[in-house]
Amino acid sequence: MNTTEVLTTFLDFYRERGHQRVTGGSLVPPAGDPVLFTTSGMHPLTPYLEGRPHPLGRRLVNVQRCLRTTDLDDVGDSTHLTVFEMLGSWSLGDYSGPQSLRWGYELLRDGFGIGPDRLHATVFGGDGQVGLDAESLQTWAELGVPVELTREDNWWSNGPTGPCGPDSEIFVWTGTPPPCGTPTTDRRWVEVWNHVMMRYRRHVDGSLERLTKSNVDTGMGLERLLTVLQDKRSGYECDVFEPWLRTVSGLWDLDEPSLRITCDHLRSAVVVIGDGIRPSNTGRGYVLRRLIRRTLTAMWRVDPSRTLADLPDEPVGHTVAHFGQDLDLAPVRHALLDEERRFRQLLHRGRPLVSRLRSAGPLSEEDISYLHETHGIPRELVVGGLLADD
Ligand code: SER
Question: Domain range spanning residue 210?
């Protein structure tokens, strides 16, 4: 199944069961939210999970783009992405957890064609405050899906306070059949979907209050699901990344982690720009600046003459269309190239600084930190010798 088919299958399944699609989906959270970017599908729905009536009703479905700044330094490995998408469904005080699990099972089996013998679930086993999630355990037993009980791994919250609750995660076996072990003992069980029984609100003192209405909040990472359905080793190999991987690897010779960083960061930068952010020294703009400069650092480590001007429209247009962003490509390209120009100027100004420090002897760790923290000159470019000559 390609990405479009997966998205259509997911949205249609929930629409047929009375869910309304939430509009929007921007990375920029609603006004008043202190967080820089939307971090999960439920994030923009927090007030409604806490009890406010939603204008679209009590059954919702959405595809939400997300960005977790805490993950930025991990991008480059095979699993982390800067911008990723979450498929989500919500019952706002409507149907219960067991119904959500049953629909989840049905969609994975009949909609996405995953054999039930490849499924495993985990369920909240209870702790000092909240008891075992017996309803979920019972539901999985009726469906014939094996269950592992855990504590911390099966409790979901968006932060230290706010709506939270026990969850049940669905894993798919990705090794050769037959499956063995359990999700906590064998990494070939890959988590695809989390169903949270959002029944509580946590207060500052750590106490839990029962919410007036019990909700269900589910989230499934699109790229993770595609990796499983398309039988790939990582999200980068799925069709959603294909235009980037093909174009970037054709343009610039990069090692594997640098290729992933370049594809991920350029694609993410396009989405962030498309949501109205421009590079700056603070907040969201600073995250965007870091994405573009980290890309350029990876490109220039080998050859500083490389330029984003060589990037064709195709991958940029593919991403803008995929995320349904209504904008021309010209301002996106302009933002990327303008930031490249600023970064080049910064490095140009940094060269005499580096030469001066070098004339006093080999650069110390302290010199490298100073260049990075005070002047924004990346360690990789200093250590790689690209700033050696004035
Ligand atoms: N809130 C849960 C998550 O982000 C399910 O949507 O995993």
Answer: 3-234
Same domain flag for 147 and 19: yes
369/274 same-domain check: yes
Does residue 156 line the site of ligand 1, with CB under 6 A?
yes
Q: Is 194 in the pocket of ligand 1 (CB under 6 A)?
A: yes
Instruction: Reply yes or no on whether the pLDDT at 389 is more than 80.
Output: no
pLDDT in tens, 17-75: 999 999 878 999 988 888 999 999 998 999 999 999 999 999 999 999 999 888 788 88
Considering the domain boundaries, does residue 247 fall inside one?
yes
Burial (CB count within 10 angstroms: exposed 0-12, middle 13-18, buried 19+), residue 312: exposed
User: Is 125 inside a domain boundary?
Assistant: yes
Q: Is residue 390 part of a domain?
A: no
Nearest CA to ligand 1 atom 3: 219
